[in-house]
Amino acid sequence: xxxxxxxxxxxxxxxxxxxxxxxxxxxxxxxxxxxxxxxxxxxxxxxxxxxxxxxxxxxxxxxxxxxxxxxxxxxxxxxxxxxxxxxxxxxxxxxxxxxxxxxxxxxxxxxxxxxxxxxxxxxxxxxxxxxxxxxxxxxxxxxxxxxxxxxxxxxxxxxxxxxxxxxxxxxxxxxxxxxxxxxxxxxxxxxxxxxxxxxxxxxxxxxxxxxxxxxxxxxxxxxxxxxxxxxxxxxxxxxxxxxxxxxxxxxxxxxxxxxxxxxxxxxxxxxxxxxxxxxxxxxxxxxxxxxxxxxxxxxxxxxxxxxxxxxxxxxxxxxxxxxxxxxxxxxxxxxxxxxxxx
Length: 342
What we know:
With 342 residues, the protein is an alpha+beta fold. The chain contains 4 helices and 17 strands. It has helices at residues 147-154, 165-168, 274-303, 320-341; strands at 9-13, 23-27, 30-37, 40-45, 59-61, 64-66, 73-74, 80-82, 98-104, 107-111, 135-143, 177-183, 186-197, 212-222, 226-235, 243-255, 258-267. The strands form 3 sheets. A 7-stranded antiparallel sheet has the order 11-17-16-15-14-13-12. A 6-stranded antiparallel sheet has the order 1-10-9-4-3-2, with no helix packed on it.
């Protein structure tokens, strides 16, 4: 499976990992189980080396995973720490692989490569996700498509006028100014849409939905699949308050052709308004999973197992950011593989 190994991927939202919960999830076609151990979040392979029962079918016991079949217990390093049979001796081979994980910004992060190279300071700054002056609503979907297709979709806002025409369509998109640039390994795709009508998805946030706004959509991609998109709608009258919404999109391969898609919306207005929380959850379901997800899965279905570049797709100016992202990621993977072979 072709992917960058020595980097941080999203594995779960912190809220998913309750103190008494075993969370089974497959990454890079390997089954794992996550839990909160004695030293914090942990991830180990999801099988018992005795009879290969899935460990997630067991329970948490004293900070370790107890196999539901015969009661062997495994700690966050994958070591068997309790054998309830015979004299209680633990055979040397009674262990399973463990994975390096970290918790930051309300996210459980996974480092699938060489654990000795893992540096938590390399986790990108997504501190706005749990900032007290912001409100974040998060979600997760499983998309039956390669993770790069989701990044392609995110970095190209022109699709919103067709896939999301009922929610994000604007009469001014053709007047938008689009800029693509790179800053180190980060790829940016910025849109400015001056004098726009308020798209339907945002109309409820304004007292007068007929207000004209300067509408900007800014995307930043970081390897391996971390996208931040900042959306602002600033009324052109210079009087009415505007809004700022920041989207977070983390794509982590489940298998070669399926992806864990983590998403969140963070806002700076009406933080205690639960009706807005519900509206955002509705948008995440309708826009991100039913509209975007369905289209991306349909594209993957047509492509089959072929890689996009191998099909020689026709390209337009709207593809500039997605092409740049694929080039950066491809170069990083090639560089990593070349280093491994030396």
